[in-house]
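Entry 12.
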Amino acid sequence: MKIKSISLILVMFLLYFSSFSQSKKDLKLNKVQTETSYITQKENGKEVTFKDSYTVYDKEGRTIEETEYYKDGTIKQKKTNKYDSQKNKIEETSFDAKDEAKGESYSKTTFFYNKNNEKIGEIEYDAKGKILKQSLIKYGNKGLKSEKLTYNADKVLLSTKKFVYTYR
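Predicted 3D structure (tokens):
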């Protein structure tokens, strides 16, 4: 009886959260251009609703702009993305609330891919175009990521992330 109850709760939990997941295919199929999310909270016994985020999609269902808001309606963060002809994200620019009005980004990340469209590197820049950090992604002989090496602006290794896989 206890196992059935836990199983039922788990299934309901998975169904609930999977319903919030939007795939690019679904967005493209339904010709979704934008998405706005709102949060309603109880405060001092009253319901208060405010805009949480606003997202703009391209014709392929890829995110090209995301804006997050503070409760008072001011912009918290804004991100824009650019893609290449192979549908790979090649650039992500983030603006913070202070720099948004000036149009100055506080960070920009460019992404690089090999001939198999596997991401092989990233470079993160500050608002002035100075490199903050860069990463190199390596792949093993089965085409799976094997490690990600992250360096600072002076090319000093900051971290190594290793990927380990188990097989059936």
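Annotation: Confidence is low (pLDDT under 50) at residues 13-19. The longest strand covers residues 46-57.
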